[in-house]
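Issue 218. Parser rejects a valid record. Input:
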Amino acid sequence: MKCPECQSENREGINFCEDCGAKLELQCPACKASIPPGKKFCGECGRKIAQPQATPPLDYSRPQSYTPKFLADKILTHRGMVEGERKLITVLFADVANYTAISEKLDPEDVHQIMDGCFQILMDDIHQHEGTINQFTGDGVMALFGAPLAHEDHAQRACRAALSIQKSMDAYSRKIEEERGISFRIRIGLNTGPVIVGSIGDDLRMDYTAVGDTTNLAARIQQRADSGDIWLSRETHNIIRDYFRDISLGEMSLKGKQAPESIYRLVSEKSDVRTRFEAGLLRGMTRLVGRRAEINTLQSAFERAANGEAQVVDVVGEAGVGKSRLIFEFQKTLDQNVPFFTGLCIQYGRNINFLPVTDVVKAAFKIDDGMSEKEAGSLIEKQAIDQLAPMIPFYRSLLALPVDDPAFKALSPEGRKLGTFEAVKSILLAASSQQPLVLFLEDIHWMDKISEEFFTYFSRSFSKNPILMIAAYRPEGSPSWAQGGHYRRLGLETLSPGSSLRLVRNILDDR
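Output the parser choked on:
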């Protein structure tokens, strides 16, 4: 059934859209009454309702069949810019570790059903990180990151997709083991190298030529990987080591390779390093030059906020001009006890609802990414007291924790959204009641629509609270909260010739 809100196709028999959460209802053509999915006659006037045709099954040989519309549109829009170009990409191979044994034990129809569920997990996590599935191999997939959509962080995206796949597959594997009595695990191999992109057809098929050993090495690593593991080549490790934790497995002999290869096992993403700027901090920073006036502006805004006059400041500048560095230096001027909550927007995050909002809520409850569900839930229970206690189901839902509250489950999608808005607003206002609060939203040019809607709503709700909200973004546009007497836009220009000269001298002196 097609969703009336986002126009995406949904499976028959469900009540809410699987893409946007809107309630799915037919409308009687005669009396306009709402009709739940699956009903054949109108309950108001008795008219027979023509049922929508069932969504056809996925055809794994046709990229158009399984590529989501948002990704297909991007590929077709940008294909003229990449056809014929040499690109550095990261290749992901994934397959079922014990597929032959499973096929021998189960009926072919059961195997087909299990693999359909597995493929759905692989497709969802790969597509969410804007990777493209180039081939289904029967018991797995081959995916490309960095082509046909060019991404400078292709290796990081591939690693995040791989970790997400294994996390999703853990729950699916437990279900298969309970229902079928078999072990079901995925193994993944990654390698980074160059390819030459060929033509991209209207049906999304892409021709490419691997340069050297790019795809072959990824496949060999995956074939050697242990069940449930993600293994990396040295090339991929060198790119992602500032952002992820991995363990060296030493040199290994791989089939078809004359010399041993250095192999690494991917463990997790580093919770304290998510951006290029944070990775740069680990390597050391040069002395700041030419930004004293901008830091003074932010300090002045914080002082006004601390006196009960809330402030919203947008820091606007081209990529690489120093927005993140400016905020970092400003934060260093604050008292260490001042709460500083950061919501990060990422390049593929426009399709992930509440992404920066989730960051802010985790910071408010002091929840780290490595915590278990029990630990995270315990922190929420301890801190969400008094007027915040009724909001606990919304916090748990936002952080993907189990929710058992019947009243919450009975809410409509719109009710859940508005309740989440109120819950997040309440925890932020509660935090600011103790001492002035700084809320920093980074790279909001990549912000999802529902997060922008929330922060616009929030920015109009704290005019008398000691809160400074800072947003950093590129000059392509302005957010919907860019208005009001407590709002200021701070343009960040490139350094003057004199400041640039001092910066170069600082770099040379630090070597």
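Fixed in the parser; the record now loads. The two ends are 62 Å apart (CA to CA).
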